[in-house]
Amino acid sequence: MPELPEVHTTATILNKLLKNLTVRDVWSNYHSVYHLGKRNIKDQVYLDEFRKNVRGKKILGVRRRAKNVLIDLSRNVTILIHMKMTGHLLYGKYEKNTPPSVKGWEKETWIPHEKENEALKDTFNRFIRLVFTLSNGKHLALSDMRKFAKVTYFQTDNIPGEIDQLGPEPLTSTFNLAAFRQRIFKKPNGKIKQVLMNQEIIAGIGNIYSDEILFQAGVHPISTVEKIPEPKITLMFRAMKEVLRKGIDFRGDSTSDYRTPSGERGQFQYHHHAYRQTGKSCTKRGCKGKILRLKVGGRSAHFCNTHQILYS
Ligand SMILES: [Zn+2]
């Protein structure tokens, strides 16, 4: 699932590309009976309402909050896109490609224009479920193989609960060591990996970056928060800032489906020390440990069995 560095990469690139364009139309085939009556474009009635509210509006900017992409439009409307498991936003010239024998909008498909860059035509970018037609003739498309993404809109000045309840942004200058300590100690008995991944404690950290942060800080993922010594709290705080910034520098992580808006892979997957490195020798200088995998709250934690110390 895209985490802070991936969503940051997408939002930063899209902000430059989309600012001042107008949304001409919205198309989606997300339609699912499991979402009937829900505030999500997978419900047909909501999709019509969504289209009515975004069509004709100017894009003022694109920003990130936690793992959400927020597209601010004129007249107090903001689009919220949570990419979830396999979703990622793509930008380019697309065209509707529906064989003449096929009837009904459900079967319509979109493909990148033949002159578009090759990366957009990659297999991982072919699951187009949502398309915004833009005033410059290009498109913003959402590829989402497993269809878990969430797309809604809200009034910009009326922040929905799901955004309002999120913890602070870890890369802001005001999020200092004291703030980090105060946030994680909201769950004194929690296991540190789960606490770091809890979006109401700190926003934007998920499975990949929590593994890498704990590896760098030398803390075992199931350590109990209140048992972790102060020097290690400081190390975790520094590791958090460093690892997330490194993720951004590498334009995100494409271990899974994530791609940048041009359809290209991020590069952070080539710099993992722990995440999905099970069985490999530890890369920390002087450490003779091995990377092991453990289930924590239904998710896999990857850690070195030697230098990552369990505090419990
Ligand atoms: Zn080690």
Question: How would you describe this structure to a colleague?
Answer:
It is a single chain. This protein has helices spanning 4-18, 44-54, 161-164, 177-184, 192-197, 207-217, 230-249, and strands at 23-28, 59-65, 68-73, 77-82, 87-92, 94-96, 110-112, 128-134, 139-144, 150-155, 291-296, 299-304. It is of the alpha+beta class. It has seven helices and twelve strands. Helix content is 24%, strand content 22%. A four-stranded antiparallel sheet has the order 1-8-9-5, with helices on one face. A four-stranded antiparallel sheet has the order 2-3-4-10, with helices on one face. A two-stranded antiparallel ribbon has the order 6-7. Helix 1 (4-18) packs parallel to helix 7 (230-249). Bound molecules: zinc ion. Zinc ion is lined by residues 282, 284, 287, 289, 304, 306-307.
Form type: globular
Widest sheet, order of strands: 1-8-9-5
Mean pLDDT: 95
Count of individual helical segments: 7
Strand share of the residues?
A: 15-25%
Got a strand count?
A: 12
Bound molecules: zinc ion
Determine the fraction of residues in helical runs and give it as a percent range: 10-25%
Helix/strand class: alpha+beta
Helices and strands, in N-to-C order?
HEHEEEEEEEEEHHHHHEE
Quick structural overview:
The protein has 312 residues and is an alpha+beta fold. Helix content is 24%, strand content 22%.
Q: What does the secondary structure layout of this molecule look like, with pairings?
A:
Layout: H1 4-18, E1 23-28, H2 44-54, E2 59-65, E3 68-73, E4 77-82, E5 87-92, E6 94-96, E7 110-112, E8 128-134, E9 139-144, E10 150-155, H3 161-164, H4 177-184, H5 192-197, H6 207-217, H7 230-249, E11 291-296, E12 299-304
Antiparallel strand pairs: 1-8, 2-3, 3-4, 4-10, 5-9, 6-7, 8-9, 11-12
The structure holds zinc ion (ZN).
